[in-house]
Every structure is written in structure tokens, then in C-alpha cells.
Design a protein that fits this description.
This protein is α+β, with helices and mostly antiparallel strands. It has two domains: 8-88, Translation Initiation Factor IF3 (2-Layer Sandwich), CATH 3.30.110.60; 101-143, no CATH class. Helix content is 29%, strand content 27%. The protein contains four helices and eight strands; from the N terminus they run αβαβαββββββα. Strands 1-2-4-3 form a four-stranded mixed β-sheet, with helices on both faces.
């Protein structure tokens, strides 16, 4: 793969975003193994911007590893500071599956105040199904179809 190139402004913005990140991949004494490349690729696919820590004392070895990582993974080398390496690759767009709205059951916590004057409200966990809704009073009711105006009915 071809390594990506960044403009200085893009590099500066990515360095600022990477400042607060922790290293997610560690490169040991064996260097760039197949396992390291696989983990770095998975981390780039999940996060896009990652930090790597390389436990090597030779600066030229770390620079060569950063260039090789960027080239093999199709990423851009953002920064090399000390033993930390920063890589960026745009995350692939994920298509969301169209699920029917509200079809899956979900657990809802409802806060109920007792009528007896007891000072503490009680929390009830209730399962709400796809054809139900929670009212303002905390009861469960069947969901109704929303009324459609006459103008919208005439358009259909």
C-alpha cells in the first residue's frame, strides 16, 4: 500500500487530537512482526488515529519502523516523539442496517413517588416492547399511530 501524505495544517490538527491518546499497540524487541501489523491495522480501522509505543533505543530504527508501518498499512505518519509513534488513516464508512424503530424490547427505569408520603421514590425497571410507550405519569401504554393531517392525506 501507498503511505498517505498530509499537509502541515492536517498534521498539526492530528497531533493535537493524538496528544490525549494512550498507546494502543506496543512494539517489542522483535520489531514489526505479523501480530504487531495485525493489531495496528485493527486499531486503525476502529479508531483512525492511534499511538504506538516502540521499546527501542535507536532513533533511526524507530523512524524506519514508522515509515514501514505507514507504507504497509496505507496510513500517514503523523508524529514521532521519543518512543511514541502516531499513525492516522481515515476510517471506512460503516453502513448502518435499517432496523425498525422501537422494535426491540428495552429495559426502562421509572421513578415512582409513593402516595403514602414515604420520602424516597422507588425505582422500577420495566421492559417496554416495540408496540408500547412510557407515559409522562410512568405507566406503560400501547403506542398509537400518529394522526395525519388532512392536507398530508390529500397529498398521498
Amino acid at each position: 500500500m501507498q503511505a498517505l501524505t498530509l499537509t502541515p495544517a492536517q498534521r498539526k490538527a492530528l497531533r493535537a487530537q493524538a496528544h490525549h491518546l494512550d498507546p494502543v499497540v506496543s512494539i517489542g524487541a522483535d520489531g514489526l512482526t505479523a501480530g504487531v501489523l495485525k493489531e495496528a491495522d485493527a486499531a486503525l480501522a476502529a479508531h483512525g488515529l492511534i499511538k504506538l509505543r516502540m521499546f527501542s533505543d535507536q532513533r533511526d530504527q524507530r523512524e524506519a519502523a514508522l515509515r514501514e508501518l505507514a507504507e504497509r498499512l496505507g496510513a500517514a505518519a503523523v508524529q514521532h516523539i521519543g518512543k511514541l509513534l502516531v499513525l492516522w488513516r481515515p476510517r471506512p464508512a460503516v453502513a448502518k442496517a435499517a432496523a425498525p424503530a422501537g422494535a426491540a424490547p428495552r429495559v426502562v427505569r421509572i421513578l415512582k413517588f409513593p402516595k403514602s408520603g414515604h420520602p424516597r421514590p422507588q425505582i422500577q425497571k420495566v421492559t417496554v416492547y416495540g408496540n408500547q410507550r412510557v407515559t409522562a405519569g410512568g405507566s406503560i401504554k400501547r403506542a398509537k399511530a400518529r394522526p395525519v393531517s388532512r392536507k398530508k392525506q390529500a397529498l398521498d
